[in-house]
Specification:
By secondary structure, the protein is mainly α. It has one domain. Helix 2 crosses helix 3. The radius of gyration is 17 Å and the shape is globular.
């Protein structure tokens, strides 16, 4: 049975970029917030026992975006990484 996606290919690439000097401090700030938010997300998942993606999304997505000012994709990556870390140490 055909799934309708036979002609689609997915490609992932890894590349290194150098930010402009004016953007370095902003990037460092984002990385520091991400570390703080990841620790928060891990604690929240443990405390609420929400190891499923859907429950974790409902619990954390808005908080990560509004309180910590993370862009949408980074907020999603953060709580997904928290779940992955906790699954790895279980």
């Amino acid at each position: 049975m055909s799934s309708g996606n036979e002609d689609l290919l997915t490609l992932t690439i890894k590349m290194r970029v150098s930010p402009e000097p004016s953007q370095c401090q902003e990037l460092i700030g984002l990385m520091e917030r991400y570390r703080e938010v990841l620790n928060y997300a891990i604690r929240a998942v443990i405390e609420n026992k929400t190891f499923s993606l859907g429950k974790t999304h409902k619990l954390l997505y808005t908080v990560l975006k509004e309180r910590y000012g993370l862009p949408s994709k980074i907020a999603q990556d953060c709580y997904r990484e928290a779940i992955a870390i906790l699954h790895a140490v279980r």
